[in-house]
Amino acid sequence: MTNQNVVVADAKSGINMTITVAAVSGSSLFPTTAQKPPAVPGTYITISNKKLLQNLDINTSTRINTWVDSMRASSPTHVKSSVNDQSSWMVQHPSALDMFEQITNASKGKQIVMFLDYDGTLSPIVEDPDRAFMSEAMRATVRKLARYFPTAIVSGRCRDKVYSFVRLAELYYAGSHGMDIKGPSKGSKYKKGTEAVLFQPASEFLPMIDEVYKALLEVTKSTPGALVENNKFCISVHFRCVDEKKWIELAKQVGSVLEGYPNLRLTQGRKVLEIRPTIKWDKGKALEFLLQSLGYANCTDVFPVYIGDDRTDEDAFKVLRERNQGFGILVSKTPKETSASYSLQEPSEVMAFLRRLVDWKKLSLRRQFRLRKRLEEIKMSLPN
Ligand SMILES: [Mg+2]
């Protein structure tokens, strides 16, 4: 008899519980590859194989439906709201453009640090995720932004992929939901020391992720439009081009593969299911790591601004609320439950906000320069 670790995921609450299952040798519940998973934190209890299988059967269809319902709720075309809902939501999460002055006033005397999600924030959501290009105007805006503020791109995508879209070497990049972090390769005055920042907290999961990617490619072949993307430390199964009548079927296919990998968990996004290691690491942790890398770990004079459109960005919004520093901006045209303080409707508004931020900073630097020059002149004119 051997023990196997199993993580039971509750998609609704987001809680994963790791349980140790007593299994008879040679009648393994999971494929060989899942038998030696990296250790994960959790609560350990022992239950029988039979009982576990019964529970899994009962929970499977509920779980699959919950995944799809949650994904629908995150997808803008499915969010219906009345005019009243919209206006009361806008009172709680006003436009960051309308509140620009209040925002910049709150940042006075503090170093603004910018965190930007990519898909749906800097680029529009498109049918083919490989063609989610950002406009030249947006690239130029982000380039200017990075001149004035330390700037990081935080994405669920593989770091190399998101870099191939953004193509700005002076930024920090946190790919795979923050599990693959790299500092600027050149041209940033915010780069600390000579050592390049590189952090990959889930590197031991790489072989497992590759294996699951291949299994998902195979199992989803029969669903037209299904697209599986390997994001290095996580996997995205895109539903964007799948007939909605087939969503449950595709979610079931994903679930069938995941049952063999207890150390991976699933989250839902905009027309996407994402699979990643169960380690306690997310975009919020990545934000904290980057602030620390920049030397702002315990500073009160830092003002982080995080802009994102997805459920996975909520972890970062929550961190900002808990730290009581800076603020989050949710990119959404419709009311959504969020920990962000402000909202912007779409990437074009994000660009307008970033441009205003650059112009405001330029102006305040010019004012400071003029003031310093004037003071110098006064000093020089005083008799010795
Ligand atoms: Mg996004």
Automatic annotation (TrEMBL):
Its EC number is 3.1.3.12. Keywords: Hydrolase, Stress response. It catalyses: alpha,alpha-trehalose 6-phosphate + H2O = alpha,alpha-trehalose + phosphate. It comes from the Eukaryota. GO terms for molecular function: trehalose-phosphatase activity. The keyword NADP does not apply. Pfam families: Trehalose_PPase. GO terms for biological process: trehalose biosynthetic process. The keyword Hydrolase applies. Pathway: Glycan biosynthesis; trehalose biosynthesis. It is an enzyme of class 3 (hydrolase). Its cofactor is a divalent metal cation. Removes the phosphate from trehalose 6-phosphate to produce free trehalose. Trehalose accumulation in plant may improve abiotic stress tolerance. Belongs to the trehalose phosphatase family. This is Trehalose 6-phosphate phosphatase. It comes from Penstemon smallii.
